[in-house]
Amino acid sequence: MSTSVDQKQDFFTVVHERHSVRYYDPSVQISKQELEDILQEATLAPSSSNLQPWRFLVIDEQALKEKLLPIAYNQQQVVDASAVIAVFGDMEWFNEGEKIYAKSVEAGYMSEAVKQQMVATVDNGYRNMDEARKKKIVHIDGGLISMQLMLVARAKGYDTVPMGGYDVAKFNEAFEIPAHYENIMLIALGKAAKPGHATVRLSVDEVTHWNTIK
Known about the structure:
By secondary structure, the protein is an alpha+beta fold. The protein has one domain: NADH Oxidase (3-Layer(aba) Sandwich), CATH 3.40.109. The chain has helices spanning 11-17, 32-42, 62-71, 77-80, 97-106, 112-124, 131-155, 168-174, 204-207, and strands at residues 2-3, 29-30, 54-59, 83-90, 159-163, 181-190. The strands form two sheets. A four-stranded antiparallel sheet has the order 3-4-6-5. Helix 2 (32-42) crosses helix 7 (131-155) and helix 5 runs antiparallel to helix 6. It is globular, with a radius of gyration of 19 Å. The protein starts with a strand and ends in a 7-residue tail after the last helix.
């Protein structure tokens, strides 16, 4: 069963209704166009110097989801969800700086002089960073876009669950992931067969310090 859901919801409703869902209706298919729309909205997330290191692999063919199942420790949502989106951080993301900033100049968002300054900053800074700092950046930016993707999906009436439980080495081998792609997470996406269960949160007082940490 194919479906297309386009709902505009209050932001706080989206936030409160988003739950991690592990049981999906396997008959629901989300079109490539709608998946692209979700990804397009997600890419409005912020990133370090607007260099957008995120990369995606959308797995929506059933045979490939079946291939992924044992790699993801047989978590059933992998095969029942409409799609599984693998989120990566490109460890060579800074190579896109010239293209991104040139588009900003074309759009009137920055001057050519600012563009040249930004490109120089990228070349002198990010390119020469140690691997640990690079990984930290792509994981932060990858986390930001992953959360945004899940909220966009919920706003459109779909459900998601972020997944860190999978064999990264086997995944990279099975799906021929480039060596410079850093795994962030998998996100299963579809229509819930059973709602995600309610959870509790620590209070703000329990997790927040004001002005100093004692």
